[in-house]
Amino acid sequence: MECALFGEPPAAVEESWSGVVSLCSSLEGDEAFWVAVLHPWGHDALVADCGLLPTGCNKVTLYHWVVSSKEPLILTAAATSQAYPCSSLPRTFGSDLIEFAAGNGAMGLGPTFLGARIRVSIESCTYAVEHLKLNNHGLVIHDDISSLAAIKLAHAELNGSPTTGLFGFPCQPYSKQGLQLGEYDVRFDTLLGGLKATWFLQLQSLIIECVPSACTTSAVQEALDILCKAMGWEKVDLLLDLKHQWPMRRARWWGILAPPGWLSGPLHVWLPDSRFQTAGSLLKSWPAWAVDEEEDLLLTHQEYLIFQDQAFGTDQRWYGLQRQLPTILHSYGAWFGPCPCGCRSAAMAPETLKLKGIRGCYVTSSLTGQPRLLHPYELAYMLGIPCSMKFNTSPRDTLPLLGNVASSMQSVWIYALLVQSASRAIPEMFAIDPAQVLDKYKRELIRQFNQAHCIEVPLSSLCIVAEDGAELTLFAAGTNLAADLLHAEKLQLHPEASCRLFDGDRQMSQFERFPVQPHGRCYRLLIEGPYAKVSKDEMIVISLNDGQDHWVELLRAGQFLFEALSSKPFEHIYHFVDSAGRLYSRDTRLWQGPGLGLASGPVPGLGANLIWHAMQSLTRDLNAQKGAAPLLISPALAAQILGASISPTGSELEIGNALRISECFCIFAAEGHWALLWGCRHEGDLHWTYLDPLSDGLRSQAWTLASHLSGLLRGALVSFRHFSVYTQSDSFTCGTLALLHLAAALGLPGGLPPHAVQTLHLWLLRQSRAESFRAYGPADSTTIRQLTDVLIGHGVFPQAASERAQLVANKIGIAAVQQALNSRNPWAALKDKASQPGSAIRLVTHEELEAQITARAKTKHGCHIPRAKEKKSRTAATRFTAENLDVSLLPLDKSHFKDEDGDDIPQIQFEEVRSNGRGIAVCSQTDARAFIVDPKSISTDALALLVLPPLPPEACASANITSMRFPAVYGPQQEPMLVQSTMVSIGDVDIHRHFGASDTKLAVLDTSVFKTVIYRDELEQDWARFIQHPVRYLTELLPALQLCRGRKCGAECPRFHPPLDEDIDGAIQEVWARKFLSDSGRPVKPAEAAIYQLYLRVASLTATQVLESSVMGVYIEPRKADLSGTDPNYTVVWLPKADRNAAVRALKSFDGAQALVRVRDRYGVRVPVAHAAAASKELRPDIPYVDVRISRVFRLHPIPHGVQRNTLLKLFKDWGWTAKPMQPTKGSALGSAWEVGADKPPPKPIMPGFGADVLISEVRARSTANAELPSVISSCHPRKLTPAKSTSADPWLQASNDPWKQWSASSSSHVAPGATSTKHLQALETRLQASLKDTVQAQLEEHAQDASMASDTTLVAFQQEADQRFRVLEAGVSELKAQGQQFRSWFNDVHKGMEQMGTQIAGVQKTTEHLTTTLGASVTSSVNDAFDARFAQLEAMLAKRSRHE
């Protein structure tokens, strides 16, 4: 393999050699060069004729140099010899590209979006070479990639410029569609040739592409590893599937080979984009192309039959706009003939097609309505190839060229990753974001296609002649039907009138299309019925009824129905039915006089008789042309077969000449849905096709019907497949689509757009017939409405819910929707139906889900309040806070507030608060802000504010601010309540709460709180008995919870015995929070529960006895009295991987242990905090003990994967931080992450560890404060007390909605800790002292100024003389300093010159010694060689002479 990659080793003398060499040194006047032949041969060689060698480079590639000597190796230039420079590892990233095995060049078009330039393309296929030249892919070389001639031409063009190679090597040796011969396939040599060209050209990097299975082929990886080792490169593998970004499946393996510094950063695959997952997200409809191109792409009869035959594959072949397109192969469009590229000279063998399956797809032409292949521009668009690509062959011949391409969208991403990673190693490069580049590329593709290839359908000029001889010229496209023109004409006619269209004497069918090119004939329009219109001046009255609602509207004759509905709540209703059963659409003109009554309702489906008549009409003309009539099975007969009311072999169904029938059609109804069953006879066997827009709507019924009809037709049922040409967009058009499928099967023109299908359906409904039964489509309005409500309730936007419901019903089937809606859990059943393979659909989009999560969190889970996760389980009920109170409706009792002298403090309004006032006022935080920020007294009397809602504890640090609870009678309801507030004293006299005097001493019993958990799997008693009275059963298990009454009591009585001086009613004071839970902690029914949990408040006198109780299955945990957390006096020593027996042994082995602890499957031992260190050392000696009370949780990231707890403890010890590892959490590609508990932050947020930096961020703080007390205590429901709020108030002024309320800054209204207030009299005294001090100071300064004026005159003269002397002295010193600096500069110059001279002399000496040594060695070597040669000749001569003698 090395010879194939690096060329042959230097051959014999006089033979040619090519390879890469490294230049070492020149000899004999630059006439020869010593070189090193690079990997893998490693020879030293002498290159003569070095004038051909390029200069300014370290590496050179030699082409066709002659070996003139083997020892030593001497290379001499010949007439064909060339030498081209190689680029070394570039300091700058080169934007040039070379394509190996270029194909159609799609792989190179992607990087050009980022400014790259294709310099050279090498391709051996003539078909592809012409395409590359047409699209200007640089120098196009038509040769094999491994040819040295081709490599030399490419090297001459590149001439050493830094270049990136693009190489998509053949996938047939590895693909599932190929023979999978691997390295034994002749096409494997193409891979080796591309790698050989990479070595000879010495590229800066290489991008390779192939099918994913090539990534796991050992021979491929071995070849790449050899090249990487020789080039000094690294390799990164990525798997990309186009379906994650674009509506086509194309999974490919991509490899990037580049210098190590370029691949240092992370290279990742792209993230899925949900915007472009179907062809309909890019196209409104399949474009209509030129007539000759459409005809070239139409399916042949053979192709159509093969596509329907399941023997050639069961995958979906027809694709609409609602699906992703499949992977397209090189054989696309050329299965049954030679390949245009020349790789195959005959059609593909049927055995191969059956073995591997025929791959490809087709669509319905918008121009002809017939099935056709994808147009090359459509296929290129779906492959993500820029629309600038040109094609020079017919559309069908172009398709194979696109079947084996690399997607340009994938190459954009790969090249962007390469540029991004290289920019990290090359600072001069501009960094890019691959995700942004990919998004821009998508938008550019869409813009280009819409501008360049949205071909308008050619218009034809049509001449329409009415009965009165008037001629009208219309312009119609090839996609227009006769029904379109008739529908437009009927909008102008009387409701009872009808019209028909004739082409000569032949009446045109509703489905007939107008010709693309005019044929010179006129069409005749025949109007039947009341032609005369009602005068437009006449007024008509219509009535609209919708259930119990009734509207009357006055209109002018001839106005549209939608004008009458503009102000009515019918925006989601599109069709209306009158009392006679006639159907009206919103665009119907109303001509009829008064008395027209319309009732809104669902659009009916087609009836059985109407469908049977339409089936006979469609086949009547066809029978006359073909002569052989197909068998038609009526809907009524099909219903009898499906209902098993008659036997399929009964006399009513006997068919004469059954073996002569070649085709059979049956439109049948089941579950309110119409579908077509089509049977064809081939060599005596029957092949059935079930045509239905819904994937599995009536598949089982169709199979049953096909089985019965096969027996009637005396043929074997050998195949059954599902197929559809149309997509159902309305719930009521299934019967119409079944007729259109019948027309398509008969070969009649079809391909109606959705709005035309609806128009045809309405026309069919007007053909009134007495119906035996109707089918209303895949979903009626009731089911759709119920499904819409369910979707809205789970987050679907209301404006999109109706359309989503219809899509879901069409996708999974109406029967499945109804079954899900009738189940006990409709949403779970819907999700299960919508996730089945083949019918998967996303019920709620990502954006809708995010919006629902946000809305639910705000309304239910409390994300808008602090510590939401801690509170969400306790805030299910609405809490009434002081924020809801109106301060004007809070009257105070003056006897509840007194001053220092015991006098009552009256209540005043906030507006009455003034200087030297007296009283107490209730106000809001906004009103009291000024007094909180500046805590000073404004009155010499008792004056205070009661602030609602209360201020946070940190704001109550000032001496004049205290927390206070006061009683009040609120509002007109006179509801008594206790209100928590903050009192701000702004007077000199203190105010305090007065509770009144009482001579009775009240005793309060000390209590303790326990959380009790009972596990079903350990409880020895019957669970069914336990759940009937769990608390009573618990007291029987724990006698310490029973108060001993003194009966039959002894020394060993286990019950609770209170002290003699204590009067206690019972040991248990309170029981609450009783829950039956599953193993995962979710509430369940008692019989299904695995855990029973409750909280107990017991007398503290029995707390120790209860805690030390040991009962199988019962675990007791002490809690704080305020329920804010666990009891801080105890801790738990957890026993890793221990079961209950091991935990019991540990409990008995340690004297300080009190009880067992269990949380799910974990066991531990509870000990007092004082014994925690000793217990940890004895019970788990291998785990170091960390004495820390966890109050804060931090996240460490990144740290190496595989780090254990003990390693982290050693790291924390080095940091000087007391912390305990809790659990590993989600990390990233950079490393793992751990959650760590501590009571204080680390020394620094970023600490060194494991040879790198570790980021430490706080995740959350565990609450250690007391439980928050309610600010208002009242017996009334909050709604009855809360006044109506004005909607005009600014919500951001409310404290609860303030987004900056957590920001503590100097401008905050909270007072800094330690702030003190100033009494009013103290402030007056301070101002008087300051004024007196200022007056005395001013007088002293005035006297001092008068005394100094006398001495100023004498000092001026002396100062002037001194200044003059100092100036003279400074001038002399400056001159001396300048002279000294000049001398120092001269000495420095002389010293430097001497040093330079010494350096030069030393260099000359070294050069002389080197030359002497070199020449001496050379002369000595030459002389020795000469003497050795002479002596060797002399010895040879003497030897010969001695033999002669």
TrEMBL record:
InterPro entries: C5_MeTfrase, SAM-dependent_MTases_sf. SUPFAM superfamilies: S-adenosyl-L-methionine-dependent methyltransferases. It comes from the Eukaryota. This is Modification methylase Eco47II. One of its GO terms (biological process) is methylation. It holds the Pfam family DNA_methylase. It comes from Durusdinium trenchii. Keywords: Methyltransferase, Transferase. One of its GO terms (molecular function) is methyltransferase activity.
